[in-house]
Amino acid sequence: MRLISGFIDTYLRLSPQEQKLLQDDIASIELREQGVVMQIVTSWMEEGIEQAKQQATLSLVMRLLPRRVGTLLTPELEERVQQLSLTQLEDLSVALLDFSTVEDLEAWLQQISATT
């Protein structure tokens, strides 16, 4: 079961329409069989939720940063921020409350680079 789930997670990416069809199919399966199917599907859902959370956090950070530092970010700084993990983005969302210049952001990014 885990091998199949791992294979599907790696090689099969469902479109929103395909995800809807899958959910409809699961709903039509007998209740006791749904548990087995859901073990496989759960990892897809978790991955989708994680990606959505990262994208939402990134979007918020990218909107707040220029307001805190008083200037638009350079493309290089934008790219560095976009490469951050979800945990790092969450940390940045708190840290940026103390920023007043773009140099504060650069120093924070440099500190993150040094620790990874």
Strand content: under 5%
What value does the Rg take, in angstroms?
Answer: 20 Å
Number of strands: 0
Average pLDDT rating:
83
Taken in chain order, the helices and strands follow as: HHHHHH
Largest sheet entry: none
Structural class, from helix and strand content? mainly alpha
Give helix % range: over 70%
Uncertain parts: none
Whole-number tally of structural domains? 1
Structure description:
With 116 residues, the chain is mainly alpha-helical. It has one domain (2-115). Helix content is 80%, strand content 0%. It is built from 6 helices and no strands. The chain has helices at 2-11, 16-27, 31-69, 75-82, 86-95, 102-115. The two termini are 35 Å apart. The mean pLDDT is 83.
Question: Helix and strand layout, with pairings?
Answer:
Layout: H1 2-11, H2 16-27, H3 31-69, H4 75-82, H5 86-95, H6 102-115
Brief overview:
With 116 residues, this protein is mainly α. It has helices at 2-11, 16-27, 31-69, 75-82, 86-95, 102-115. The longest helix has 39 residues, at 31-69.
Descriptive terms for the model:
116 residues; mainly alpha; 6 helices
